[in-house]
# Entry
Amino acid sequence: MRAHTKQFLLLLLLIAIIAAAHLSGLSGYLTFASLMKHRSLLEQAVARHYVLSVLLYLLVYILTALAVPGALILTVAGGVLFHTFPGLIYATVGATTGGVLAFLLSRYILGNWLQARYDARLKQFNCELKQYGHLYLMTARLIPVFPFFLVSYFCGLTGLSLRTFTWATAAGVLPACIAYTFAGSQIGSISSPNDLFSPRLLLSFILLALLGLLPMMSKRLRNRRKT
# Structure
């Protein structure tokens, strides 16, 4: 099969996944209100069909990581349905797997062509990513300014290696998975989304991300002093 045919088929697959996710109304269920409304029903389903419930949870998380905002609510749901542990494991696996799939689709549809076409222009940018790409990615995961799936697709267009993307994504989402699955396990004491997404918790993620960037900032300062 020719390369262009593969790219076209993968593009069709991606469009189909995104269309299916949105037409199914998935985003409408990824809200705090919906989680609270269906909590009892979901807990009963988990009690009766635990393994199937885990598989469906992972599938929904992967679809969300590919096309729909709502990963935070799904992480909270992991705590509600499976408790902090193994809920945080399921959430981390779902987020990382979905991120990797988005990364690979982006890379094979457009990323490889883009890198080959503009190799000389992107050389300095790729060198920067080789040194600090994992720090940039972990920061983006810790401070979700952009939707999870957009970060994954963008990374697929760059020269960032799959190995670095995978472990940095897992490490980057882990703190949030711990925090929000624990919050989900305490859902009885939570009355509104504000209790979940408190400024104090978000500030702690920002500070953690800044601490992760300190080695890069320190190295750059030393390099500037040398020059």
Q: What stands out?
A: The chain has one domain: 3-226. Residues 92 and 174 are 6 Å apart (CA to CA). The mean pLDDT is 85.
